[in-house]
Amino acid sequence: MPDVTRRRPVWTLIVVVLAALLLWLILAPWGPGLEQVLGRKRVFVNALFGGLTLGALYFLVASGFTLIFGLMRNVNLAHGSLYLLGGYVGYVVSNVVGYVLITLPIVFVIVGLLGLLLQHQVFRRMEGEELRQTMVTIGLSVVLADIMLWIWGGQSYTLQTPEWLEGPATLPVVVGTDRQGNPVYMRFPQVRIAILIMAIVIGVAMWLVLNRTRLGMLIRAGVDDKEMLTASGIRIQYVFLAVFGFGAGLAGIAGVVGGTFQSLAPGEDTRFLLASLVVVIVGGMGSIPGAALGALIIGLVEQIGLVYAPTYSVVFTFLIMALVLAFRPQGLLGSRR
Amino acid sequence: MNWGKRSLLGLLGGAVFSIGFAVQAAAQTQPPIRIGILVALEGAFAAGGADGVRNVELALRQVNNTAGGRRIETVVAPTDTRPDTAVRQARRLIEQDRVDFVIGPLSGSEGIAIRDFAKTVPDRTFINGISGAMEMTFVDPAPNVFRFNLDGNQWGAGLGRFAVQQRNIRRIATVAADYSFGHTNLMGFAVDFCRAGGTIVQRFWVPLGATDFGGVIAQLPDNIDAVYLGLGGTDAINFLNQWQQAGAGTRILGGTIMADPTVLTARGRARNALIGALTSGPIAEDNNSPAWQAYVRAYQEAFPANQRFPTPSLFGVGYYIATQAAIAGLNAVNGDLSDGQRRFNAALSQLRLATPLGEISLNENRQATGTVFINEVAEGSGGNLVNRNVGRQEGVTQTLGMDLAAFRALGLPSRTNPDCRALGGG
Lengths: 337, 426
What we know:
The complex is a heterodimer. In chain A, 73% of the residues lie in helices and 5% in strands. By secondary structure, chain A is mostly helical.
């Protein structure tokens, strides 16, 4: 970190000032002038937290996507289908076991196995042929979408959250005063807080695995130079399998998580594929911290845009993507190669 | 569409096919009449659309798939509630499947698109399924488009006055879907509500098919008596779920499709927020008129309990009545669809149709006049939610009982129209 500070003092200053400003906006009581510009504080803080949750969900989907791309140079355009499949399977499983938390590992395994199968049976046969891979994954996503439409139909499903996550939690953030002058604390759905915590835990765990274990070392080496890693006697196919399975399983889990506060229906697969593409392009292809940053930015922009400029909210996401592509085509945290 | 509904469609096809063979000998002389069914089977109203298909089948089964002495065949064209899909599928029905006329569509904006499309095929008839867009028959209507259901504007009538006078709800915020039907349905409610002295504090518009309502829920003002929820299908389920997760709050007034069986039967805790919600619309599930009771019985007997709603949904009733109208029209002209269907169209215009909702007649725009029911969601026996009828308004016309000039002066429904203050509200 100090290294970064020394190399880019101006950027560090800007980031620190922005973070301080944000913190002040969240914690300080708002004066009437500020309320005039940004509306009521409750609305702003809620949009901010909503954006964080949405970003957490996007991160869950996009981190698998970016990992697979970084290692195998494989743009898996069927990734959105894995998300939706995870959600549907989660719906079926949670109806049987009756508890969402047990559903998560089961879905991870099922969708992860499908990922293994895809890698072993399909992608291994067309290694390095990028156009072919792209076409095949598009084809797969269409086939999967139709199979899911066949089995689960066109209506939408919502997963039940556990009883203890029902209702809102009160956060120690003052958002205003009531008529008697008492402070009003912010209320935010517990489910969304749980999703946020889960994404952070998964993100940190992934970072630890990548940076502290032998497998992580292999993956990082593979991302940097696949040929060299193979030449040093590593069976890279096994690493590929592990990463693909893990990435697919993560997308499946994201489907379950997404299904608890948004509905699952045909079309969600492409929506989340598009979201993860944008996230990964903004954050930088193949970078986990990049996926986290990209997901955070896109989630925040979507939610805040929805509150302050509902008509144009769709545009902002793509505007950011266009800006990143224009000025930093490798992505915010991507490495140039 | 799940396995059940798939097989149901298969059954429908099979039934039409086999009955076709049975009556072929009798009706050998004339080719069958082909009816295209334009219905949303994907998206927010998929479950309601499937009920529409069931009800077409029911209505046809009741006449042994014959009308005007001719055998009837059906072709289902699925849409996803988007106007461009509706037009594409309607074109497919007419150009490729060669249907004689079309029953449908289901959704508001689809209806407006079909009105314009209908003008390009003047020798084909369109009988609306359950689209509620007022413009479909009010603005520059097509002579070959008929609507035997009330429009979204009419469906809102009566609820506003009832809420103010009977439930003392005076200040509300509205959250409604930002498309033709959302605007229209809110207008019908607001005209009434504002004239009775109610105040609309703030209006929120959300895109149809939106999934995350967190931002809107956070913005709802504190000092209101109720939230008007103009959403339907999965949108309503998502909103209610997230509203519940955020701690809910005030009472709910609902647009017509908010407390439809598709929402009431949804699994999840969304339903808890619904008890006590007031809605208005063309049906009352506990209507004790013999015609309605007989229809509900027929519906329940025709399909196994796990393949239908407890009682027919709004969407189903719409398609049922549309099919009834088609059958009555065909009988009136003895199945004669020659002459660009002119005689058939004239017969439809003059129908006095006996339906489960009472007798329906059309006005000069080929738009129905009828009764609007005000319902309240209550917990029924066994814990399932039911709509209890608490009021009704008879003979609601397309202009909400105003004369045409006064109604036109209100303007067309939009995000900001009607102006509540101008109507005497706040």
